[in-house]
Design brief:
Number of helices: 0
Oligomer: single chain
Number of strands: 11
Distance between the termini: 26 Å
Radius of gyration: 16 Å
Largest sheet: 11 strands, mixed
Shape: globular
Length: about 180
């Protein structure tokens, strides 16, 4: 499944939610600095919302992300979801934007925070649609089966099950759910 085309509905110029920016004056002289400020949020079609972030490590296509307060993104895991000060949860862009090598560390991109029909990674064999989801030990991947250290997530619904990644998700203010709250 390729990344759906989405355009900003805000009055911003040059925004491409499906673009990864490598910043280097020597390698890419046309991009000596990021084109947007980190943390910039824009809306797209059908209520989608995106935030401009930087990858602190390499990230695979369609990975779920833990986004820090400094707008640094890492693939979501059981451990980084509980980072000091909390994290925002989002999804990295997918194919054809992100190739098999993924998003390189230090690159800039738009992460999806909210929206429908967003592609994301799940443990395909054991994840069921329309149920509670949890973090896993596998970076960037969620599951409906909780492990001993899985953290429950709210605001994320897998809408369609497939036999291979990516799956299709609805994100509505995704967050960590604690205690007995409903997601």
């Amino acid at each position: 499944m390729t990344q759906p085309t989405n355009f900003t509905t805000d009055s911003a110029v040059g925004v491409d939610f499906n673009q990864v920016y490598t910043v280097s004056a020597s390698v890419t002289p046309e991009t000596p600095a990021p084109p947007f400020l980190l943390g910039t949020t824009l809306t797209g079609f059908f209520g989608a919302e995106y935030i401009f972030v930087q990858a602190s490590t390499s990230i695979s296509a369609n990975d779920f992300l833990a986004i820090t307060g400094a707008n640094q993104a890492n693939s979501l895991t059981n451990t980084n979801v509980a980072a000091s000060g909390g994290v925002r949860i989002g999804v990295a862009p997918g194919a054809p934007v992100v190739t098999s090598t993924g998003i390189a560390a230090q690159s800039y991109f738009w992460a999806a925070l909210n929206g429908a029909t967003l592609p994301g990674n799940a443990i395909a064999a054991s994840t069921t649609s329309n149920v509670e989801l949890y973090t896993t030990a596998v970076a960037g991947v969620v599951s409906s089966v909780t492990g001993s250290s899985g953290v429950q997530l709210g605001g994320i619904i897998m809408t369609l099950s497939a036999t291979a990644n990516p799956q299709t998700f609805l994100l509505t203010w995704p967050r960590v759910v604690t205690g007995t709250q409903n997601p």
